[in-house]
Amino acid sequence: MQNDYRKGLKRYHTALLMILVLLACGFLISLFTGRYDVKREEVILFLRGYELPELPYRVICNLRIPRTIMAMLTGGALALSGGIYQGIFNNQMASPDLLGVSTGASFGACVGILLHLPFAGVVGLAFVAGLLTVTLTLLIGKWIGKEADFSLVLAGIAAGGLMSSAIGLTKYLADDERKLAEITYWLMGSFAGTTIKEVFFIAPLLLICFAVSLLVARQVDAISFGKKEAKTLGVSYEKMLLLLIFMATLMTATCVSVNGTISWVGLTVPNLVRMVFGNQHRKVLMLSILLGALFLLLADMMARSLSPDEIPLSVITGFVGTPVFIPAIMKTRSGEYEKT
After folding, report:
1. Can you give the C-alpha Rg of the chain in angstroms?
2. pLDDT tens-digit series, residues 143-159
3. CB 259 within 8 A of CB 70
4. Whole-number mean pLDDT of the chain?
5. Helix 119-144, helix 151-173: angle, nearest 10
6. Could you tell me if 299 and 313 are in contact, meaning their C-beta atoms sit under 8 angstroms apart?
7. In this structure, are residues 337 and 275 in contact, taking their beta carbons and an 8 Å threshold?
8. Which of 146-155, 246-255, 303-312 tops mean pLDDT?
9. Is 195 left (phi over 0), alpha (psi -120 to 50) or beta?
């Protein structure tokens, strides 16, 4: 038993190190990737601290570095949100996408764009709409009943469908071509046009959520056992549940309001981690952040390099996420995962 625990811990630490190395390599490769012609030597000189001509300097500093950091932060946040939702609802099908949170946040952001609100206003509306949507999902799920394991997912589909109709209404009301095109393109998800100001806005908020989530990872384990078991273990069930829902929704809404709808990350990545490392949330949440960051960084590089025109991110994440998700969910739901 002790040997199994040590082997599991060693494998976990090895995975952490490998993902961190891959993230560092991915960050560097991302600086070389894009439609603008920046020579490899210029990137190397930039990293070594040498001065560059104005054009390659602006491309690296104003375009590639901000979108690379944004991709990593967004991937980590969406994957962490999915891991939290799956843990507190004890349902591997729970995610920001299937619970309707992403769609609700998208509706709030669309309203903000339609009303010409500043960036902070768009984020605020996205958060409120996302929080209202997850509340509606929980109410519908409670009304459907707890007999079916998929009741929460069905409730999320219903709430998400309502929000999708609301998004359609905002697109209908956006009668001028510029605003309609802006909403339509934004809904497909992209890091194009990411600015360093947006990174500075989003980074502290997400990093605080990352830190708090990791600090309460053991409480997520307790909540996943149920209300009675959590209270027996000394966890304030209601307060902790509200805190976790608040943080997961805030992360999702913030990412959606900045980058548009990016699907599959919150569903696929945590399930992949569970398939390999089990359901202990100290491992699940940490690895979800890192693997989500790597997953979306790679997806973003594919989006801007596979075609002359940038491919929407949700197209890439869907094609990559589906083949990974199916075996992961089959294995986790059959009970073939580690408990340690």
Report:
1. 20
2. 876 544 567 778 888 89
3. yes
4. 85
5. 140
6. yes
7. yes
8. 246-255
9. beta
- Residue 266 pLDDT exceeds 50: yes
Q: What domains sit in the chain, N to C, each tagged with a CATH number?
A: 2-333 (1.10.3470.10)
Q: DSSP per residue over 100-124, as a string?
A: THHHHHHHHHHHHHHTT--HHHHHH
Give the contacts of 41 (CB within 8 A, at least 6 positions apart): none
Task: Print burial letters for 13-40: b (CB count within 10 Å at least 16), e (below 16).
Answer: eebeeebeebbeebbeebbbbbeeebee
Q: Alpha-carbon distance 274 to 231, whole Å?
A: 25
Signed CA dihedral, 125, 127, 130, 136: sign only: negative
Q: Report angle CA 36, 34, 62 to the nearest 5 degrees.
A: 70
Element (H, E) at 188: none
Q: Which of 285, 289, 283, 269 is nearest to 329 (CA)?
A: 269
Cα gap 111→105, rounded to integer Å: 10
* Global pTM value: 0.89
| Cα 204 from Cα 196, distance rounded (Å) | 13
Taking each helix axis from N to C end, the angle separating 313-333 and 281-303, rounded to the nearest 10 degrees, works out to 150
Taken as a whole, the chain contains a residue count of: 340
Cβ contacts of residue 4 below 8 Å, gap of 6+? 340
Separation of alpha carbons 239 and 35, rounded Å:
48
CA 128 – CA 105 distance, rounded (Å): 8
